[in-house]
What we know:
alpha+beta; three-stranded mixed sheet; two-stranded antiparallel ribbon
Amino acid sequence: MKATHQRIVVYNALQQMPIHPSAEEVYTLIHTANPSISLATVYNTLDSFVDAKLITKVSSQEGKGRYDFNTNNHHHIYVTNTDEIIDYHDPALLAMIEEYLKNKNITNLSIEELQLHIKAKKINPEQEVGIH
């Protein structure tokens, strides 16, 4: 992938942003300093990053695309009442699901990646989520 000015600006913005921004949020962050970069360019750049596996795309409840700079294998918790997407790492859960699928003797299918997408609601939207 060629390193263009637009790609560098979008990539740097992703590194600065809270996890899982939308294309619109990336555009809002970069637009003042880079008014020549359009929202369409941001979408196209993010999609090219996804295709190149530099980032991943995560869907929110409404199917709105959000982008994840963390490309390590992990799960997501989508908080419906605050529209947050939280990374969730649990190797024991991943191993349990992989073992379950192995025991199901699924034929003619090779599982390439396993991601769990959990929908939840914050009990108290003012407090941070604690995962232990």
